[in-house]
Amino acid sequence: MLLSTTNGGWYRAGLLLALCCSLFAGSPLCEAQNLVPNPSFELTDTCPYTIGFQEGDKPLFWEKWNQSPEYFNACVPGTGVDSLVGVPLNGFGFQYAFDGDAYVGMLAYDGSGDFREYVGCQLLEPLEVGETYNLSFFTNVAFGGSYWAPIWACNNMGMLFTMQPNVWTDTDQPAFGLRNHAHLHSTSVISDTANWTLVSGSFVADSAYQYVVLGNFFSDALTDTLHIVAGNSIAYYFVDGVCVTRVGQECSLTSGITGQEPLAGYVWPNPVADRLHVRAGAGTEWQVFDASGRLVHDGVSAGDLLTIPVREWALGEYVLRLKNKGVKHVRFVVMR
């Protein structure tokens, strides 16, 4: 493992590949593929109708791996029991999806016996031993829900790879035990109730992992918490936009089956020292997040070409979010 915190980063090989992609947009090396199917949880058999990842009531390709996580979608009409799994308001919190109309949620801490909920899926292809991969997802602590209203925050929300599945088809299935380890996790408490926080990093695959799992894999004793307001001891998190790619490749979120356009089609130069040029389109809403998920700058593009001055920014990796008739995410690096 090279990195397992919110401070995501590219290594020298990844930076060189990104630079090559900015110069040679047609290179096969620049074609990206998110290895996570249905990474924004948009594809589903039916609109969610109740809590707990019931049969047919879950995003395609994803399963509950422990206890009873939830699937939330804006298609829910907002009345009766199904309103508990709506978007933006549901039983656990109020939050619009980061990408599209849907996300998943899980209990990450309860303060009374290491109770955890996990969701998992099979990757589109096994990881290659010795290959470096970029990992990322967006998460938000649930707050202001219509029923359960969890009010704690914690650290350790993360991503874990496994060789075998642990799918629950009913209640009281084989437990997915705590590992006190994750291939990616947030070392700091994520307490922002309004905005999505990016958790990202890189690691070298030591096995041909076939499955990815999301949640808090650390015990209560190894989990830091923050009481947002007085009351219960539950920390519940929404997750959206999950990505696993080979180092140096950008991420496609909508389906994970096909990659986005080459990096150079949106952003150049990359790496950048002074001014970042973006082929955005007039009226495009844009946001830039640093490697810890903090919003650095945002705005609305006035024309087809957006120019962002970065000379005063800290060196490192950033994520640019473009929203205009769809959402795109592009990684870029500030270097001097």
Question: How is this structure best described in words?
Answer:
Residues 1-32 and 255-264 have low confidence and may be disordered. The chain is built from one helix and 19 strands. The longest helix is centred in the first third of the chain and has 12 residues, at 12-23. It folds into two domains: 12-246, Galactose-binding domain-like (Jelly Rolls, Sandwich), CATH 2.60.120.260; 266-334, Immunoglobulin-like, CATH 2.60.40.3080. Strand 15 and strand 16 (295-300) form a beta hairpin. The strands form five sheets. A five-stranded antiparallel β-sheet has the order 1-4-10-7-8, with no helix packed on it. By secondary structure, it is mainly beta.
Number of domains: 2
What is the annotated CATH architecture of the largest domain? Sandwich
Our estimate of the beta-strand percent is 25-35%
The mean pLDDT is: 82
The string of secondary-structure elements, in order, is: HEEEEEEEEEEEEEEEEEEE
The number of helical segments is 1
Estimated helix fraction: under 10%
Helix-strand layout with pairing:
Layout: H1 12-23, E1 62-66, E2 70-73, E3 102-109, E4 118-122, E5 132-141, E6 152-154, E7 157-162, E8 184-185, E9 197-204, E10 211-216, E11 225-227, E12 235-246, E13 267-268, E14 275-279, E15 285-290, E16 295-300, E17 305-309, E18 316-323, E19 327-334
Antiparallel strand pairs: 1-4, 2-3, 3-12, 4-10, 5-9, 5-12, 6-11, 7-8, 7-10, 13-14, 14-17, 15-16, 15-18, 18-19
